[in-house]
C-alpha cells in the first residue's frame, strides 16, 4: 500500500515538474516580448523615462514649431494644441508603462526566473539528498555484512552507531526536503489563479490607458475643429457656396467679386472674354491666389482672360451649380415655353425660388454680364455668346450624359435660359448694383493688349484696330464651346457671332 502511494505521489510530482518547466518557458518569453513593447526604458525614474519616449520628442518638436510659426498662423495654433496633447498622451503612456512594469512584468520575471527555478533547485537538491541517503545506507549495510551479522541484527560498536546515525540523518534530511518540495509544488498548483491574474491585470491597465487617452483626444478634437472652422483663410474653389460665404462673412463669393471687379476695370472691351482660353500656368496661379485670399490686382489687370477663366472655373467647380440642382427641371420647363412673356415669367419664378445665397450671387453675376454686353461691338460678347460659354458653368444636371447629348439637348436649353435673363437683367433684378461690395479693389492702371488704354474706356470710344495674330490664341476655352458653336451654326445662328 505504501509503495503504491509513493508511486502515485511520484507520478503527481513528475506531472507538476513538467508543468513547472512549461510555465517557466511561457512566462519567460511573455516577459521578454512584453518588455520589448515598452517605449520607455525599463527600471529608470519617471523623468528619464519621459525624455526617452518618442511621443515626448514629437510633442517638443510640435511646440517648438508652434513658437516659430506663431499664434497668428493656423498651423501654429494647431501645432501648439497638438504638441500639448502629445505631451499629455506621453504622461499617460508613462503611467501605463510604470503600472505594467510593477503589476505584470516584474511578477512574470519573479515567476519565470525566481519562483520556478527555486522549486527546480529544490528538486535537484532532493535528488542529491536521496543519493546521500542511499550512500549512507549502503555503508551501513556493508558494515553489517563485514561484522558477520545477519540482516535482522543490528551491528554494535562506535563505528556502527555512527553509520546508523549518519544514515538516519540523511534519511531525515531527504524527507524534510521532499516534504518542502511537495509543499512548494502543491502551492504552485494552487496559486495558478494568481499567476493568471497577471494577464487580467495587463488587459485592465491597457483598457484604463486607452480609455484615458481616448478621453483626452476627444476633449481636444472640438478645439481643433473650432480652430479649423473659425479660420477664414480657407480654399473656396470646389467648396459649397453657403459654406464659403458663412466662413468669410460675405454675401458675394470672394472669387466672383474679385474677378468681376477686376474685369470691370480692365476687361470690358477685351475681345472674346470668357471664350478665349488664358495661359494655363497663369490661370492656375490666379486660382491659387484667390483660394488663399491673397490677390495682386495689378499683376492680373493686364490679363483679363485669366481673370475670366478663374471666374468660369469657380462657377464650374461649385459642388452644386449656382442655379441649383433642385430647380433644374423648373429652368428647363421654363425654357420650353413658346410664348415669350410667359417664358420670362416662368424664368423669373424659378429665379425667385433660388436660395438667398445663390440668388444674391446670381443677381450680381447677371448684372455684370449685362454690363459686359454694353461693349459687345468691341468685345464680341453678345448675350447669346455669353450664354454659350457660361451657361454650362451655371446649370447642369446631377448625372450628365455623354458630351454629345449634353451639347445637342441640355446645353442648348441652358443657353435659352441664360440669354434672355442677361437681355432682361434689369427686369429680373431691378435697380443698380454696387459691384465693389467690400471696397477692397481699386482701379489699377493697366495696358490692354488689344485696346491700349490706361483707364476704363467709355462706351462711345472708337474701336482700336486690333492686329494681334489669331495664331497666338486658342479659339475657344474648352472643347464643349467648339461643339456648341457648331450646333449653333446648324441652327442658323450667324457664324461670325462668336469669332468676329
Automatic annotation (TrEMBL):
Nucleus found in the keyword field: no
InterPro entries linked: AH/BAR_dom_sf, BAR_dom, RHG17/44/SH3BP1-like, Rho_GTPase_activation_prot, RhoGAP_dom
Stretches of the chain forming a coiled coil according to its record: none
Cellular-component GO terms for this entry: dendritic spine; leading edge membrane; postsynaptic density; presynaptic active zone; recycling endosome
Highest rank taxon of the organism: Eukaryota
Keywords, comma-separated and alphabetical: Cell projection, Endosome, GTPase activation, Phosphoprotein, Synapse
Main location, first listed in the record: other
Region ranges (Disordered): 448-476
Biased composition range(s): Basic and acidic residues: 463-473
GO BP terms, alphabetized: modification of dendritic spine; negative regulation of Rac protein signal transduction; neurotransmitter receptor transport, endosome to postsynaptic membrane; regulation of actin cytoskeleton organization; regulation of dendritic spine morphogenesis; signal transduction
Subunit structure comment from the entry: Interacts with BST2 (via cytoplasmic domain). Interacts (probably via PDZ-binding motif) with SHANK3 (via PDZ domain); the interaction takes place in dendritic spines and promotes GRIA1 exocytosis.
Protein name: Rho GTPase-activating protein 44
High-level lineage: Eukaryota, Metazoa, Chordata, Craniata, Vertebrata
